[in-house]
Amino acid sequence: MDPVFFTIGSFEVHYYGLMYAIAFLLGIELVKIEGKRKGFDPALMENFAFIAMISGLLGGRLYYVLFNPTYYFSHPGDILAVWKGGMAIHGGILGGIVGTYFFAKKHKISMWSLGDIAAAPFILGQAIGRIGNFMNGEVHGVPTFTPFSIIFSIKPKFVEWFDTYNSLTLTAQMKFKELVPWGIVFPDPSPAGTEFPGLALHPAMLYELILNFIAFLSIWFFFKHKNYKAGTVWFIYIIEYSLIRTFVSFFRSEDLMFYGFRAPHVISVILVIWSILMIKYFNRKKVI
């Protein structure tokens, strides 16, 4: 497992950057296909996809940097080094919304219609991006012998439990058995391998990859063909991803925290409530 796809001299191509490039290109084509189905000019949709994705990348990076100030204030040169990893999806969603709003305002198009078009490509891009996380050994889970009562605790207790585990004798530690057979041992230079050297971990990034791809299929082949009011499909995406992130975050070891709770859980609850209210609103009033 190596984060570098190939090297030519001193030039390196990282899986992380490559996956985002693939997601970017696929996203543009899917937006053009869906936009054409809705009667929009493909060239206009290509411009929209570019703006939405760039603003999403900027939002995701800014969010991540702001929530990790200690490291980036000490290493300002790494702020723009996105190929090394470090994106926050909720920041990406916010950034994409901002970019979509200004694009829609400029071209006098409903931003909710554009959101519906972007929903499926967006979550497919998230799924592809998790391949880069896997190769980087980041967005990783806890050791596979962690009790489920600890994993699914409302207020995360893993750090406290793992400290207790490390204080046990080797004989006592051996009593903790693997709960699933698909744990992965990541190499030492990776974040996962450095934090948990030699231990099999839940591949949380692969859990999300699979669930994101299923969500993409549900939107692309089912929801987008329904006669919903503009904006409904976008908020269905928000609900689906929020539920996915809520589940996957239970297994992750390094989620950002908010007053003792996992930040993604807090944000996801807010987003689900907001999305349900917006869907109800769209189906009661005419949205232009």
Strand-helix topology:
Elements: E1 4-8, E2 11-14, H1 15-37, H2 42-66, H3 69-74, H4 89-107, H5 111-136, H6 148-151, H7 158-166, H8 170-173, H9 191-195, H10 204-221, H11 232-249, E3 257-258, E4 261-262, H12 263-282
Antiparallel strand pairs: 1-2, 3-4
Helix pairs in contact: 1-2, 1-5, 2-4, 4-5, 5-10, 5-11, 10-11, 11-12
Give a nutshell description of this structure.
With 288 residues, the protein is mainly alpha-helical.
Structure description:
The chain has 288 residues and is mainly α. It is 61% helix and 5% strand. The chain has twelve helices and four strands; from the N terminus they run ββαααααααααααββα. The chain has helices at residues 15-37, 42-66, 69-74, 89-107, 111-136, 148-151, 158-166, 170-173, 191-195, 204-221, 232-249, 263-282; strands spanning 4-8, 11-14, 257-258, 261-262. A hairpin with a 2-residue loop joins strand 3 and strand 4 (261-262). Helix 1 (15-37) packs antiparallel against helix 5, helix 5 (111-136) packs parallel to helix 11 (232-249) and helix 11 (232-249) runs antiparallel to helix 12. The longest helix is centred in the middle third of the chain and has 26 residues, at 111-136. The radius of gyration is 20 Å and the shape is globular. The model has no long low-confidence stretch (mean pLDDT 89).
